[in-house]
Please model this.
Amino acid sequence: QVQLVESGGGSVQAGGSLRLSCAASKSIYSSYTMAWFRQAPGKGREGVATIDADDGRTFYGDSVKGRFTISKDNAKNTLYLQMNSLKPEDTAMYYCAASRSYVVRGWLFLVSPGRAEYWGQGTQVTVSS
Model:
């Protein structure tokens, strides 16, 4: 069993930045495809960014391209999401998710949250105008 714990959420004004972190209870980032998803009230879960386990290739949702950056530190068992130029429409609960790399690659995981094997509890991001 793997536990994922997100942190770093909060309230920020439009144009500001936040960095989310996701700490894993085990060393999984070298063998799991990792992802950030978000869900706003009344909306479905949206893929924000993913990163492949082996080559670190990254994939982004259209709404965050050029503003968000996903990265990981395998030695620290930590996944990050750097969010810049935040907009009010970025307001949502942000979740970290993991799936074994032989099950799903990042490009597919981005649009298939149902393939997640593990989820974090989420961290709230609120962007005010």
Remarks:
- The mean pLDDT is 96.
- The two ends are 40 Å apart (CA to CA).
- The first strand starts at residue 4 and ends at 7.
- Helices lie at 106-109.
